[in-house]
Write a structure and sequence with these properties.
The protein has 189 residues and is mainly alpha-helical. Helix content is 67%, strand content 0%. The chain has two domains: 116 residues, Rna Polymerase Sigma Factor, Chain: A (Orthogonal Bundle), CATH 1.10.1740; 71 residues, Arc Repressor Mutant, subunit A.
Length: 189
């Protein structure tokens, strides 16, 4: 099992951490795509917008200092929305012709942006982290934890099914959940 001594955000501040950047991109890309849908970004443009956002994050995350009193997610969402607005302005400027009849309200970003729900964010991040972490555990360890935590089955039944002790079921749960907490430190604010 891979362990971490610090949070993913702290590791991203260090230079030359491609594995951590890959983990960050894998964790957040699906969520960021869902945010682009809420912003009504056309699907054919969402990839370009996210590539622009990740370039911005690559530049800004090394200088980012996590403040537990503030929200990392809100900061990242603000970056996305600002990149989207910049992208909209550039796009609109390219379509405007001198003397053209484009109305300002046609090219301006909407005043009120869609709400991004806390529960949706948490569910997505935990789900995605679990998908990525599954390969770090032996199948029996993963299955024991999943059956006990998610399926809410009695540990005695799980132990019998997997041919392990009841204590091993508890240890499996502990290992997987500890790793999940390590993975998500400072990301669930």
């Amino acid at each position: 099992m891979v362990t971490t001594s610090s949070s993913l955000l702290a590791r991203l501040r260090e230079p030359n951490r491609p594995a951590d950047w890959e983990r960050f991109v894998a964790l957040y890309t699906p969520l960021l795509y869902s945010w682009t849908r809420r912003l009504r970004v056309p699907p054919e443009d969402a990839g370009d917008l996210l590539q622009d956002l990740f370039t911005c994050l690559l530049e800004q995350l090394p200088a980012f200092t996590y403040d537990p009193r503030r929200s990392f997610r809100a900061w990242m969402r603000t970056l996305l929305v600002n990149r989207w607005r910049t992208w909209q302005r550039r796009r609109a400027a390219g379509r405007l012709q001198p003397g053209g009849g484009k109305l300002l309200e046609e090219v301006a970003a909407p005043e009120q942006l869609p709400e991004f729900e806390e529960g949706e964010y948490r569910r997505h991040l935990v789900s995605r982290a679990l998908q990525l972490m599954q390969a770090e555990f032996q199948p029996a360890t993963w299955r024991a934890c999943w059956a006990y935590v998610v399926e809410d089955r009695p540990p005695e039944d799980i132990a019998q099914e997997l041919g392990i002790s009841v204590n091993s079921v508890y240890l499996s749960k502990s290992r997987v959940l500890r790793r999940l907490r390590e993975e998500l430190t400072d990301l669930l604010d």
